[in-house]
Amino acid sequence: MIHVIKIGGGVIDDAALMQQVLHACASMNAPFILVHGGGRIATDVAASLGISQTMVDGRRVTDADTLRVVTMTYAGLINKGIVAQLQSLGVSSLGLCGADMDLLRAIKREHPTIDYGFVGDVVKVDAKQIMQLQSAGISLVVAPLTHDGRGQLLNTNADTMAAEIAKALAVQNGEHVQLTYLFDLPGVLRDVTNLESVIAEIKIDQVEQLIADGTISAGMLPKITMAIDAARSGVKVRIQHARDLGTQHGTLIQ
Prior knowledge:
8 helices; 37% helix; alpha/beta; single chain
């Protein structure tokens, strides 16, 4: 089983929770791919430099100054910090972004009314090179940046990158890929006011109804959309609290 794990800024901001996640990764005793975000840290760094930030529907508009900030923060501060922590746990790990080895290529996002700036949508994943690194016993820590093949870096959503990597690996290796989204809720909730109302399993054909009745909405909607897309490619997808990595808790989507 190949594990693709995505962690967001909320996990990164919580040092104790982050350590718990990294220890769980180290205990897998097999190479994994860890895709990280880090939006809050990038926002703080931008503020310290006097660079204003614009968010549209939770997505960062990335002008030239912001691209410099997210490159320094995501591919530098956060990425190398995670790599250093994994090395301390005995995990042979390599930190990179989509531009390294041409692993993930993207195109600049086009939108009819919003100019997102230097934001990319993934169009190609080099699963073969990822598998070669995995075969050499190397775990990958992937920052949410891609490139367009013409020298331009692009800020790219980490949830999307994780899903695209998992899909490409599933095509390369059959159905032996698990994608895990880690965040600060125990899974997909039937009632957002009740943390005990976790939906243990969601079938692909149930999603439309769950969206229609409002069970899946707001911030969970894009995660579910990407999870379903990955599941259709044969990926096993689990959404769970970061403290539950390595367990069967949370919501399984298949």
